[in-house]
Amino acid sequence: MFLYEFAEKTAQKPDTVATYVRRNKKIFKNHVERRQKQIWLDEKAVDILLKKYPEVQKKQKKKTKKSLKKNELFLLENHVLLLSFRLTKGIF
Fold first, then answer.
1. Which of 30, 38, 37 is nearest to 17 (CA)?
2. What's the mean pLDDT in 43-68?
């Protein structure tokens, strides 16, 4: 995994992660290399960094009363349309 991808995954700045790797060369020796002008982290390096910078869990948006009312209104409108269609076609 590239360092930039790891930083995005953990909601860190790439410079923050790169500085940590640079300051701890002994830990990351043979686990970090340059590929395509970017820093590549092997599995061991990612595991070490995850201990320092855990993954961020995305928060689920809570439904507000306003959005619930809109959904209820939409369902009610659909129900009314369906009933009026059935009445006009004589289906019941």
1. 38
2. 82
